[in-house]
Amino acid sequence: MSVVDDAVLRAELPLPPARRLVGPVDGGGSPPQRVVWKFGGTSVGDVDRLRAVAARLVAAKREGKQVVAVLSAMGGSTDDLVGLAMELSAEPDPRELDALLSVGESISCALAAIAVRELGERAVSLSGPQAGVCTDDAHGSARLLQIDPRRIVEALEQDAIVLVTGFQGVSDRGDVTTLGRGGSDASAVALAAALGVRECDIFTDVSGVFTADPRVVAGARMLPSVSHDEMLQLADAGAKVLQTRAVALAAAHGIDIHVRSSFTFDPGTWVRRGSPMLEEPHVCGVAHIHHDPIYTVTGVSPAAVSAALAQREVAIGSIFRDADAVRFTAPDTPAPQLVSALAEVGGEVAVRAELGSVSVVSAMGANRSEVIATALTALERNGIDVHLLARTPNRVTCHVLATNVDRAAQALHDAFTLHEFEHNEEVTSAVTAPTHA
């Protein structure tokens, strides 16, 4: 087993550049009862679910709220569009692919607006460009630069429910861009910041944030709240409930995220500023990635490797240097694309494609020796070999065979008794009580 110490070089989080994110907002603040809600693909997956979303939006409006809803494409439709493009070309032009993929969110918003109108309320659907979402021109993974929400504010003042396409924006050249997988989460958080709303509700197909994926780990429990730091680590380590970018944006702009189910009225999970535990290095959760290869490059400097990956806009998970090699992970990028990018800088590339990863997360000290010892002991007792252990102040990540990932996640969850986890909500509320819009 190899161990990577605290000198692990974390890839830069996908925060927006230094340009202003928040555009001009009428009045310089949040009007009373303004809300920004986001609904994922499963939540708008068919006509009946779109009607249910419309009913929820109308109910909120009739309670006196000004409602902005960010919608994803209907479940599975984005993958279908990618499949069509791949039938025509192994490497579709990024600009044209963005133009194609942005259609899914537009369909969701237009249909939802029709459903709202059928319920007797005004509604207007806006594309990312129409909503003032400005990005750079990195097609497929564009970064948010600025949002001018004046058109949204005008529609709200005209007593309309505003439906904004997630996942998309417009470049300085006037081209449609997309924000990458899960980008609708980032769209919603950024719009909340631009509109002066301090909370953003993310409606999804799960009840909230759990101590582990409940589909994989028996005994996983829903957390009433986690800090931005904890959620950032969980998302980066594989938890799918929120996009890493969205959490980073929320932390940067002081936005509280409320993760809720679209299908129930359960209380959900708050992702808030501050930390829920002030001193104890508690473990808040276990996250996993089923396919997380390790790439080893010899004969090339870390700077050259990083530059080659940056040029191809590869999102690096972790990158670190041994005495004679550079090793990194990039779980969201297909191996052939990575090998092709690295071929341009020379050196030898080895891929451990059979690996996945499981991580123990705590914003208050996962790197402590007792956490590492507990994790390794639990995996050893379950006959699971650790091929690489990487540790940072907030996370311990064990690379294991992909076939062992689910068992490893269960073993770690049990070892840290997360099925008995009781969150100190009183401390959290005292430190980071939400400000209701």
From TrEMBL:
Catalytic activity: L-aspartate + ATP = 4-phospho-L-aspartate + ADP
Gene Ontology CC annotation, any one: cytosol
InterPro entries: AceGlu_kinase-like_sf, ACT-like_dom_sf, Asp/Glu/Uridylate_kinase, Asp_kin_monofn, Asp_kinase, Aspartate_kinase_CS
Known EC number: 2.7.2.4
Keyword terms: Amino-acid biosynthesis, ATP-binding, Diaminopimelate biosynthesis, Kinase, Lysine biosynthesis, Nucleotide-binding, Transferase
Residues annotated as binding ATP: 38-41, 204-205, 215, 240-241
Keyword Amino-acid biosynthesis: yes
GO biological process, one term: threonine biosynthetic process
Domain Aspartate/glutamate/uridylate kinase: 34-261
Binding site for substrate: 78, 105
UniProt pathway annotation: Amino-acid biosynthesis; L-threonine biosynthesis; L-threonine from L-aspartate: step 1/5; Amino-acid biosynthesis; L-lysine biosynthesis via DAP pathway; (S)-tetrahydrodipicolinate from L-aspartate: step 1/4; Amino-acid biosynthesis; L-methionine biosynthesis via de novo pathway; L-homoserine from L-aspartate: step 1/3
GO molecular function: aspartate kinase activity; ATP binding
Protein task: Catalyzes the phosphorylation of the beta-carboxyl group of aspartic acid with ATP to yield 4-phospho-L-aspartate, which is involved in the branched biosynthetic pathway leading to the biosynthesis of amino acids lysine, threonine, isoleucine and methionine.
Family membership noted in the UniProt record: Belongs to the aspartokinase family.
The name this protein goes by in its record: Aspartokinase
Biological source species: Saccharothrix ecbatanensis
Organism lineage string: Bacteria, Bacillati, Actinomycetota, Actinomycetes, Pseudonocardiales
